[in-house]
Amino acid sequence: MSHTFDEISQQLKRRHRKSSRLKWITMGSLGLAGLFLVLFFADMLTKGLPAFQQAYVQTEISYNEEAETDGRQAFDEELLPIISRTVVRVIPMELRNNPDMIGTSEEQWVLANSEVDQYLKGHRNSLSAEEQAAIDERVEAGQVDMRFNTTFFTNGDSKIAENAGILAAVVGTVMTMIVTLAIAFPIGVMTAVYLEEFAPDNRFTQIIEININNLAAIPSILFGLLGLAIFINFFGVPRSSPLAGGMTLALMTLPVIIISTRTALRSVPDSIRHAAFGVGCSRWQVVRDHVLPLAMPGIMTGSIIGLAQAMGETAPLIIVGMVAFIPDVGASFTNAATVMPAQIFTWSGEPEQAFVEKTAGGILVLLTILISLNAFAVVLRKKFERRW
Amino acid sequence: MNSHATVMNGQQTPAVGQPYTRNNAACHDVSFRVRDLNLWYGKNQALSGLNIDLFQKNVTALIGPSGCGKSTFLRCLNRMNDLIPSVRLEGLVEMDGRDVNASKMDEVALRRRVGMVFQKPNPFPKSIYENIAYAPRMHDLVSRKAEQDELVEKALRDAGLWNEVKDKLQEPGTSLSGGQQQRLCIARAIAVQPDVILMDEPTSALDPISTATIEDLMDKLKDQFTIITVTHNMQQAARVADYTAFFHLGEIIEYNDTKVMFSTPAQKKTEDYISGRYG
Amino acid sequence: MQTNQLLLIFCGALLLLGLLAFFAGRSKATRLRSAGTAMFAQPDQYAWFTVLSTAGPAILVGAVGAFILLLLGADIPTLYLLAASLVVAAIGLVVSLNQVRPDFHARQAIERVIRKILAGAALISIFTTFGILFSIISEALRFFQMHSFWDFITGTTWNPGASFLASAGRGDGSGAEFGSVPLFAGTFMITAIAMLVAVPIGLLSAIYMSEYAPRSVRTVAKPVLEVLAGIPTVVYGFFAAITVAPIIVNIAGFFGLDASYNNALAPGIVMGIMIIPFISSLSDDVINSVPDSMRQGSLALGMTKGETIRDVVVPAALPGIISASLLGMSRALGETMIVVMAAGMRPNLTANPLEDMTTVTVRIVAALTGDQEFASAETLSAFALGLVLFIVTLALNLVSVLMIRRFREKYRANNL
């Protein structure tokens, strides 16, 4: 009837093998997920890092009179296919503004054409073999060089790849986020305070709760439809503006802020409330003077995470028109603007190889900001974390 | 010291291997031999210098105030303490002539022979039938469906549950009452045909009637299995146990025939405890 | 910017009135108190009461007036509206100053108002849901007036091209077809691929983290997985289109298969990667809240750890795992950027994941980013698609919430 240890162990061998197989499979799955992450970042870095380098050409600019009408006349003809069109384009204007420059000449490092840039980075390009040889010669002579790409951080969008930058999108993102936070933070915190501290536990409150949880899971694109139909078509908020985008994102961020604020409020122990009630505070005074200050770190953490989420959101912004071509930094909340993810989306649609690099570069900038924000939130939480 | 009983005492070195006899009756076979067992949770010593022989086909009760180490000791017998990372253990626990803590000992094989019933009934989230059939099937104890049905019925009958559940075998195990759930857990344990069944305060979460049912069950099951039970309840120990060990602060103060222990305790501490002075 | 200046003047005037109210209210209350009268509240509370009753009604009148006028479709006579609210503010000031009396419960009055304001904020989330529903349904109804609902649900050809001619006054738009079946087929195909990636990897990772991993691995692995959820979808879209799709085309080519660069596999796989943390994180929580007594019960029967996990822990956590998967699925159905960037534009009813196919969200974006008139059938079709998307995701979310609630009740786990 009863088995000895050896008999049982014999039978167990197979089962132990199966058991450890499960362990390895689960471990492998986690490893696979980690591997995806590593591959992803490696891919983005290899594609995006070159965007922060840009080829420059040493050239002599002779400000002659023909150049006042045709910028090309200021350059050596051999150089024209190499340098960027934007450099050529600004010459006449410059001369018109400073007429006494005519007749002078100067040595300058100017932006190279994106094809040259791509060739030097070893990417696909449309240069012929001769042109490539000519560039190689100039590189040997030290007349073509790779430098840190400041244009990328100081310019807005451009159809000319080497002139395109992310600044307009960054400013647009900041403006949109200001609108988003200005709306979502107070309303979110107020809602959470109401639900957690004031609301009676009745049907109405339950409906609000279910509704908030549901809002958090609604596809973001539907918020875009709301923004388009209500904010833009009904209230007449200007299309493509940070105001329209910010309002739309605010509604999306609202549930995130509400849920995290409620968690933060709930983690303040009731003993604090009772103590405050005990010294004669009214409910509102208890919340304002005791509960909210204690919950603030948690609320801030949640809001930052919500902000980071909103910052990476694209779909609803496309619907409210924030994919416009924006070469200049936006001036007001009602002017057309673009945001970083939308800029990335626009660039990704450009056929030129140089824009692939720009896209990945933009992605790196966006990811850096998002990771910093999240890291900041984590630090904030760690620093103020309190066990009651 | 009594002439016909070895009183095992933490302070005194016991007579190792000396057979325990009761009323000059035949010797019982030893199920577990425990020698110099020490156990630490991190830095806290929970068991110190335990020496005890547990006998086959008997009910042995481990009693003592809470925190005295009786549950910890019970869990040494089927190495459930392995699940707690901070536990460190020294000494010998021997079953069937084998050190259960040896590196060559497979704890799964050990647990297959030493079943356990827990304080709170913990049926699996499966049907009543599956709760019982699951383990024997995994252990290859049954090969055909008919055999399996037969085994389930036998286990449920042995646990005294068959008449109550025979019409609802496919219902979830959690749908039963607390006492029924605990008997289901006992049925589940005996279905794998172990040698020993450990019971960790099996009735502490139950009502008096369910408790009585389970006590009767223990009495019946001791013909087939060695039963070692931890209990808070001295009356229960007096009612069901053949032998009783009294634990205090991680040591075995006294170990004796239950009747002897409760009528003429050898140690002052035991007397104080069973007369309700602390605990 | 006439309106802007008016608004600025209005805000300035309101601010001045508010300040006036504050100081007038406080000085009156202080005077009363220094005269020796016992009062129900502090002077500051009277001051805030007067401020609230000055600004509150005025802003309310302004906002409600503007809203009603917008609703009626009339031009807002901004000047009159703002003037009216200022008058209301002045009245509020006078009335509330009059209320500064010793027997008036200023604090309670303030708190009643604050409570109302907080409740009002809580209503915004309800309004948002209604806003989404209202905007989608009303536009979708306009669409269904132009094209039959039945054709929309059962039609297998999506060809909105001709509708824009109709709205431009050329042709009658009869050539346009809005059969959404191929769009939904594409959506479900890509979602299915995503779930095939996300559910096994997410669940198995969760099992590793909660059952096997040492503490140190767990504290690192969890946030690292969360990073996957924090990456913006537009970035995933780029990754899918530029990196993954060509790899798939190459692999397919190696096996002699013909794959499109807009194949459904690339967005599906990348979407799956994106959803992994949603599933792993919730499953991890659920597995952790399966009571330890279950595991011990199984181990005590002589089960191996693997058998315990497979046959006891996972079945016990199943409702939570299903709920997590449903949430992940709803996320995949509504995901937009990955498919916009990596999936095709061509409505294609096929079972071959190597072909290009389009999805509901792609068509919504396509319909709303063109230069169409808003009232054209193509633009409105976006709202009809949005309506279906809303209903499907809502159903998935509700089922998921119900399942997790049942799980929580069963094991009294409070951390979910």
Order of strands, widest sheet of chain C: 1-2
CATH architecture of chain B: 3-Layer(aba) Sandwich
Radius of gyration of chain C: 30 Å
What is the H/E order of chain C? HHHHHEHEHHHHHHHHH
Mean pLDDT of chain C: 85
Low-confidence runs of chain B (pLDDT<50, min 5 residues)? 1-26
Q: Helix- and strand-based class of chain C?
A: mainly alpha
Uncertain stretches of chain C = none
Q: CATH superfamily of chain B, please? A: P-loop containing nucleotide triphosphate hydrolases
Largest sheet of chain C: 2 strands, antiparallel
Supply the CATH class of chain B: Alpha Beta
Task: Please give the share of residues in helix of chain C.
Answer: over 70%
What is the element layout, followed by pairings?
The complex is a heterotrimer of chains A (388), B (279) and C (416).
Chain A: H1 5-48, E1 53-62, H2 85-97, E2 105-111, H3 114-120, H4 129-140, E3 144-148, H5 151-154, H6 167-198, H7 203-217, H8 220-232, H9 242-266, H10 270-278, H11 283-311, H12 315-319, H13 340-348, H14 353-384
Antiparallel strand pairs in A: 1-2, 1-3
Helix pairs in contact in A: 1-14, 6-9, 6-11, 6-13, 7-9, 8-9, 9-11, 10-11, 11-14, 13-14
Chain B: E1 30-41, E2 44-55, E3 59-63, H1 70-77, E4 87-95, E5 98-99, H2 107-113, E6 114-117, H3 128-138, H4 145-158, H5 162-165, H6 178-191, E7 196-200, H7 208-221, E8 226-230, H8 234-240, E9 243-248, E10 251-257, H9 258-263, H10 268-274
Parallel strand pairs in B: 3-8, 3-9, 6-7, 7-8
Antiparallel strand pairs in B: 1-2, 1-4, 4-5, 9-10
Chain C: H1 2-34, H2 43-72, H3 78-99, H4 106-146, H5 149-154, E1 158-159, H6 163-167, E2 177-178, H7 181-212, H8 215-230, H9 233-254, H10 265-288, H11 292-299, H12 305-334, H13 337-342, H14 360-369, H15 377-411
Antiparallel strand pairs in C: 1-2
Helix pairs in contact in C: 1-2, 1-3, 2-3, 2-4, 4-15, 7-10, 7-12, 8-10, 9-10, 10-12, 11-12, 12-15, 14-15
